[in-house]
Amino acid sequence: MIPKEWLHAAEKRLDGQTHRTPLTYDAGRGLYIKWENRQKTGSFKARGALNKALTLEDWEREMGLVTASAGNHGQGVALAGKLVGASVKVFASKDAPFVKVNAMRALGAEVALVEGGYHDAEEAGLAFAKRNDAIWLSPYNDGHVVAGQGTVASEILQEHPETAEATWLVPVSGGGLLAGISAVLRNYSAEHKQANPARVIGVQVAASAFMHSLFYHGNQDNVEDLPTLADGLTGAVEAGSITIPLIKKYVDEIILVSEEEVAQAVAFAWSEYGEKIEGSGAVGLAAILSGKVTLQPTVIIVSGGNIQPEIHTEILSRYEK
């Protein structure tokens, strides 16, 4: 369990450091949509990275920060490094989107591209941090990172407390966002003695269903890691990650969406709401549009908007009608 003191501390620590992103209500569809594509660096990842970096001692910052990223977390850590005066090295897959790699470098991070997928980058980053006595800043396997991600839910509850009894759809890969949001919701429910707490559903792509397998089968054996529009939701979960028991305890279910459903959601977000979102951020909306979730009201977390421009253009042209 993430201590409630950590959750409240993260809110105070990030006040003024991150954007309070827009929350819109689509009354016709019963949808509350949190647009984290409008967050600093274009995704929610800045929250957890900044929260963790701001807890470090001066001597830890001097050791430098090392992480692995599909692109968004690396941008968050790079931003945090600039804020606290720490060097940042990010390990990423050589197949990571150029828009994300370039953004990490523009924020001052050194980026090392690794053969293979996200899991290979994570292994390389962990090994480097250990060899060089640097501070490893996990995208998800860290209590302060999880608490920082949970501030997404805190903001929503402050603006619309009625969502404490809604269904929440949250993208999941390593589980930092899902664990953080579910921790905040369960803590809120306990503090307010709610009879009908929120229903929390993780949404993952079928192409890389590692957390889905851990949730239902207790292992990641034989899970495929295929190319996907939702590049930020790929890769195996670090063994022993704190997110695994948190998600098993506090999350109601995890569902899968297809590549076609993700692409349709990206196009829908642009045509209906005028929002440019990436595949990873579109999975919750995909679950609604595909009819896999029909409960209302529903809170959808759009986790990011850092999509390769030509991919976004191609998707819009495919679904222009």
Q: Number of domains in the coordinates?
A: 2
Strand order of the largest sheet: 1-2-10-7-8-9
Strand-and-helix sequence, N→C? HEEHHEHEHEHEHHEHEHHEHHEH
Helix content: 40-55%
Mean pLDDT value: 97
Uncertain regions: pLDDT < 50 for 5+ in a row? none
State Rg: 18 Å
Write up what this structure looks like.
By secondary structure, the chain is of the alpha/beta class. It has 2 domains: 215 residues, 3-Layer(aba) Sandwich (Rossmann fold), CATH 3.40.50.1100; 95 residues, 3-Layer(aba) Sandwich (Rossmann fold). Helix content is 44%, strand content 15%. It has 14 helices and 10 strands. The protein has a 6-stranded mixed sheet with strand order 1-2-10-7-8-9, sandwiched between helices. Helix 9 links the parallel strand 7 and strand 8. Helix 7 packs across helix 9, helix 8 crosses helix 9 and helix 12 crosses helix 13. The protein is globular and about 55 Å long. The mean pLDDT is 97.
List the helices and strands and how they pair.
Blueprint: H1 4-14, E1 23-26, E2 31-35, H2 45-53, H3 58-62, E3 65-68, H4 72-84, E4 88-93, H5 98-106, E5 110-114, H6 118-131, E6 135-136, H7 143-149, H8 151-159, E7 167-171, H9 176-191, E8 199-205, H10 210-217, H11 243-250, E9 253-257, H12 259-273, H13 283-289, E10 298-302, H14 309-318
Parallel strand pairs: 2-10, 3-4, 3-6, 4-5, 7-8, 7-10, 8-9
Antiparallel strand pairs: 1-2
Helix pairs in contact: 1-7, 2-4, 2-7, 4-5, 7-9, 8-9, 9-11, 12-13
